Automatic annotation (TrEMBL), chains A, B:
EC number per UniProt: 4.1.1.85
UniProt keyword list: Carbohydrate metabolism, Lyase
CDD domains: KGPDC_HPS
Organism field: Vibrio quintilis
Domain of life per record: Bacteria
Alphabetized GO MF terms: 3-dehydro-L-gulonate-6-phosphate decarboxylase activity; orotidine-5'-phosphate decarboxylase activity
Domain Orotidine 5'-phosphate decarboxylase: 5-206
Broad class of enzyme this protein falls into: lyase
Protein name: 3-keto-L-gulonate-6-phosphate decarboxylase SgbH
GO BP field: 'de novo' pyrimidine nucleobase biosynthetic process; L-ascorbic acid catabolic process
Encoding gene (name): sgbH_2
Amino acid sequence: MTKPLIQIALDQTNLPSALEVARRVESFVDIIEVGTILAFADGMNAVSTLRQLHPEHILVCDMKTTDGGAILARMAYEAGADWITVSAAAHIATIGACKKVADEFNGEIQIEIYGNWTMEDAKAWVDLGITQAIYHRSRDAELAGVGWTDADIEKMRQLSELGLELSITGGIVPQDIYLFAGINAKAFIAGRALAGEKGQETAEALKTEINRFWG
Amino acid sequence: MTKPLIQIALDQTNLPSALEVARRVESFVDIIEVGTILAFADGMNAVSTLRQLHPEHILVCDMKTTDGGAILARMAYEAGADWITVSAAAHIATIGACKKVADEFNGEIQIEIYGNWTMEDAKAWVDLGITQAIYHRSRDAELAGVGWTDADIEKMRQLSELGLELSITGGIVPQDIYLFAGINAKAFIAGRALAGEKGQETAEALKTEINRFWG
């Protein structure tokens, strides 16, 4: 199991603010994500600008692709994304279409887990050659005060056992990292927690916890 | 039951091509949709430009919102959208957040039906005050040759009975319109079929069929 990486989600509603955050965090994050909000705000220009300014980082375009997979995937990879997200609610044909384009670009796709998915669905993703998924509390569920549950952790373990590397997000704080011990965690994703004044401190605290549990 | 409208989905990968299509079809469509592809290509600039050029049309932003509902909804309504789409896979808190912003702008939201949804989910949407949903064959499913089934029509009838107006899409052709008779259809959505050389002819054939079945 490799050590989980740290990912910043850029969810600003305009590109200049996002670029400023990216510049501030680049030394202590491994992965830069063009969040859905930023991607809808500025389009693929956000991806290509961040690619140009941060050539060494892994760049994710969080499209939560649900349909029109081949075209959306191509747009994002051509703009410079390394990984794109695809919604768990997408038809399996859409997921397959994305995977095919990803392979062409040596890119990867991450299944973003939302809605009433099943472990059968997850097996179908793995059968397509998918190796990554994103597990999270919805931003809005988080705002509604819904925390990490034993059921969440159990599902993560099962997905992990199917062979999926998981990126974990939704109000991630250093003191919660122990919850995910033993899970094949690809990355921990945060936005404001890393973008703020104490961002570097938070990233270091996350890394300390990661080293404790994925030593 | 009101007569179904005709909606063009603009899914071009760049704004100039989309504007050209919109200009060509404006006289025979009621609703202009900034498709997910176009919205990701050019961002909210696509919405505000189309709003400016087509002030009298209903303008939809097809975001398939899955999370971060309040921010995405606000972005789209501020750019001039009348309606936005929200994924059926979104957490109910996300759908509620979108609805709240919609109300503030006198906008509407359309639940875009994807994934393993249930009629219980649909009831929860209606309880939130949602009045519209989009039912379709996935673009990729359509490419894979999956047609309209009796199960599709039955689900549409049930959604209709719950009080949802349905916009129907996925390879819509005039000769299929009779399939949807009796359903509370808000609009029929097409892209290439309306954008092409025979677009006006197709729109007229659609309207003839609509008049037959929603007379």
